[in-house]
UniProtKB/TrEMBL annotation, chains A, B:
Source taxon at top rank: Eukaryota
PROSITE patterns in alphabetical order: MADS_BOX_1, MADS_BOX_2
Protein name: MADS-box domain-containing protein
Molecular-function GO term, any one: protein dimerization activity
Matches recorded under InterPro entries: MADS-box/MEF2_TF (IPR050142), TF_MADSbox (IPR002100), TF_MADSbox_sf (IPR036879)
Amino acid sequence: MGRVKLQLRKIENRTNRHITFAKRKSGLVKKAHELSTLCDVEIAVIIFSPAGKLILFDAKKRPEEIIESYLNLSEKQRGRYEISFQVFNLGDKLRNLLELQEIENEILLCNFESENIERQIRDKTLHGLLVMLERKRNMIIYFFHSPFKHSFQLLSPINID
Amino acid sequence: MGRVKLQLRKIENRTNRHITFAKRKSGLVKKAHELSTLCDVEIAVIIFSPAGKLILFDAKKRPEEIIESYLNLSEKQRGRYEISFQVFNLGDKLRNLLELQEIENEILLCNFESENIERQIRDKTLHGLLVMLERKRNMIIYFFHSPFKHSFQLLSPINID
DNA sequence: ACGCCTATATATAAAGA
DNA sequence: TTCTTTATATATAGGCG
């Protein structure tokens, strides 16, 4: 859908791959939102970043330790906060069932107040957010460092143990 | 993206809504597959059908009873078997973690041998498949009747209780 | 990295079979 | 229903700042 027809295989050039990722991720999310609205259907799109995979399985640290070291970074080192978990059009009952209300609120906060996100993180601390989400969902939620944008991503839900 | 620009709201005409659902669902799935391949990223797209929502929250029956009544239908009444849970490009380790291997195999079987699906259902019975998947994933997986195509959909993962 | 531009590829709404 | 077809809308690759 551009100047050139792409072959359907991994884009080897790192820069181009990340540019394409950003563009197509937003395109996919938009499409999901449209389908959700037009057809009154509930959709979740979950994107697991390469970073998440790496850290989850190769890191010697436990998630808590990863979060701890994230909190020890300076604000500048932390980069922008990014949430990669998107939920569209979840009905009240299903939302309650999944106990996602609180998370959705956090996502909305992040989306609409992204300028203040660093302050939010200071106020609550990532750890506090994590604990809250964990309690609400009875699920373990991890934050991972992303190679894209040098930012953190929230990958969920991964139900471990 | 058609002859006419659609407004972003629920399509009220039932037939048109279902046609659009079928088209856009396949489009979304294709996009997710492309993004997954091009950028080497793991993606899950989970579509909760309206039928699933209805039966989950409004039915007096327990899921087992719903499955039981499904099994009591004649083969013609059952219609074609459909799985709406799609996973793209899950790495081996992540796949093992989520214990999705068995499910993926089932999905592949269903996709590539859809002509034989009725026989497969006879051989294993939906109940047997359900139990197997439940054991493998430590998750509860439900089958729901879909208003679309008068077929059944596998909605997962919904982690209940 | 991020946004804007433009040419091109792709998706799809409506209609026809 | 379930295909095609076709006109049009949309997505996006590559460039530039």
